[in-house]
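Researcher: I'd like a candidate sequence for this fold, 162 residues long. If you have to choose between options at a position, lean toward the conservative one.
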């Protein structure tokens, strides 16, 4: 009878240790997943720069994030300089705006007219990565003047086709 009690108690200990092992494995996997998500959000995995054009006519450049909400980080925006005839457009850091926003902007995907990944050797990306390379008298990417034309949203275009 003593042997049966010992056998049952040993069997219970083995069952408890198996469930503890499973629980420990789950905790380790969740901790690793959480660490990866935090690393991905803070440091990133060499994400590319994107240009995002909104239905408001604003053009933003930055690193596009899909998790947990659609957003741009390391944000720059294209501004129009009507007083400067030689260079009517300039690129400015979003966080340098006078109201002091953070360097992240959340975007409603319904307001996006188009978005495109920028090449690593594009003028905008080179300017963003090396802002000191721009001449001290100008804070913009030198390009020939470009005429921006308003773009209709896709819903309006699709309605006109019907």
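Model: Candidate sequence:
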């Amino acid at each position: 009878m003593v042997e049966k009690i010992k056998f049952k108690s040993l069997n219970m200990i083995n069952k408890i240790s198996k469930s503890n092992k499973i629980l420990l494995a789950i905790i380790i996997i969740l901790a690793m997943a959480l660490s990866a998500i935090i690393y991905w959000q803070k440091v990133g995995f060499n994400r590319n720069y994107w240009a995002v054009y909104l239905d408001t006519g604003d053009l933003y450049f930055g690193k596009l994030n899909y998790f947990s909400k659609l957003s741009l980080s390391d944000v720059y925006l294209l501004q129009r300089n009507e007083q400067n005839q030689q260079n009517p457009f300039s690129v400015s850091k979003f966080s340098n705006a006078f109201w002091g926003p953070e360097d992240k902007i959340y975007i409603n995907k319904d307001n996006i007219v188009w978005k495109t990944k920028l090449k690593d050797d594009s003028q905008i990306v080179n300017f963003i990565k090396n802002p000191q390379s721009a001449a001290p008298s100008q804070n913009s990417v030198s390009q020939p003047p470009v005429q921006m034309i308003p773009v209709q949203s896709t819903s309006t275009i699709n309605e006109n086709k019907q």
